[in-house]
Write a structure and sequence with these properties.
alpha/beta, TIM Barrel, 3-stranded antiparallel sheet, globular
Length: about 325
């Protein structure tokens, strides 16, 4: 019997060329590399991202890790701080470099790696052009967006042309938290990640709903990381607001009615939470994720899925890989 494909929708990839460009041109933008024993750290002001070990860009190490985990395919996405920190010209160069590196990796390992394109959202016209190029020329299978762009929410009218192009191309969106809300109150105890990430994801999803982006572009499909952050657990509260608050009544349907637009990875760190997510969203909207190779991710994403019981064989195979293959338009 053929083993079903396991597709990791949440796997970070950092090309070495991206790091070199930061090292040579990042300083005027307040971004630099700090080298350490475990790999370079990207410093955005005083905020560190990393260390970035060779596992982020060494494809042989990646493939060995995938084989150990029983994962067939990685959907490659960049990591924070992405490219929004740069000016428009450098942001475009960084995005093009990243996407070309992902396309090269996918060509070198067909059937194992696919790319999610990074877009220079600080330059919406250029982001539209790069989305087109990433699909038509490079073969990327989706786009990778931050939950905000330099503090501008995704329902900002300036971004509508980008979403229009994404919808026209039939691309799924993989969101990732960046520049999370909470500021100094989340500065200690790693709370910017532990709490900031899931709540920023919920805010971004709610803005796409309340801001009318999903009504304007009903073909959009959006994957929310970290098991949807706080969104699945606050849908009832959002619906209540729609029912009783004048600020929310412009929406033609309650927020929970938009749930079919959203997909979710499995990174909940609690089988009870993942079981709840599956019950709310449906097994056809949940996909395997590891957050490779951050320490806050899953070292054994397949094993983590197997802690969720009861789960039918067909639902397990959907979550393991079937849903992601269909979303990305990839054959197993």
């Amino acid at each position: 019997m053929t083993r079903p494909a396991a597709v990791d929708i949440h796997a970070h990839f950092v090309p070495e060329g991206y790091l070199r460009l930061i090292e040579t041109e990042g300083e005027p933008h307040g971004v630099r590399l700090r080298h350490g024993p475990d790999g370079p750290v990207i410093m955005v002001g005083h905020i560190p991202f990393g260390p970035i070990s060779p596992r982020y860009h060494d494809l042989d190490l990646r493939l060995r890790a995938m084989d150990t985990q029983g994962v067939t395919v990685h959907a490659l996405s960049l990591m924070p701080p992405m490219v929004y920190w740069a000016d428009e010209a450098l942001g475009v160069r960084l995005a093009r470099l990243v996407n070309e590196a992902m396309a090269e990796a996918a060509r070198a390992h067909p059937g194992r790696l696919v790319g999610l394109a990074t877009l220079p959202m600080q330059a919406p016209e250029a982001a539209v052009a790069e989305a087109e190029r990433a699909v038509r020329e490079l073969g990327c299978r989706g786009v990778y967006l931050g939950t905000n762009v330099r503090g501008r929410d995704l329902d900002d009218p300036a971004f509508l042309p980008v979403f229009e192009k994404i919808a026209a191309l039939g691309l799924p969106i993989f969101l990732h938290p960046i520049n999370v809300l909470g500021g100094e109150r989340l500065g200690q105890y790693y709370l910017h990640n532990l709490l900031g990430n899931p709540f920023d994801t919920a805010v971004a999803a709610a803005r796409l709903v309340y801001g009318g982006v999903l009504d304007r572009f009903p073909a959009l499909r959006v994957c929310l990381p970290h098991a949807g952050g706080a969104l699945p657990y606050l849908l009832g509260r959002l619906d209540r607001g729609h029912a009783v608050r004048p600020e929310c009544r412009h929406l033609p349907r309650p927020p929970s009615a938009y749930l079919p637009h959203f997909f979710f990875d499995t990174i909940s760190h609690a089988p009870e939470a993942l079981r709840y997510l599956i019950s709310v969203a449906g097994a056809d909207r949940v996909m395997l994720g590891s957050d490779y190779c951050f320490d806050m991710g899953h070292d054994d994403p397949v094993g983590a899925l197997d802690t969720v019981r009861p789960l039918s064989r067909s639902d397990r195979e959907r979550i393991l890989g079937g849903n992601a293959l269909a979303l990305l338009g990839v054959r197993s």
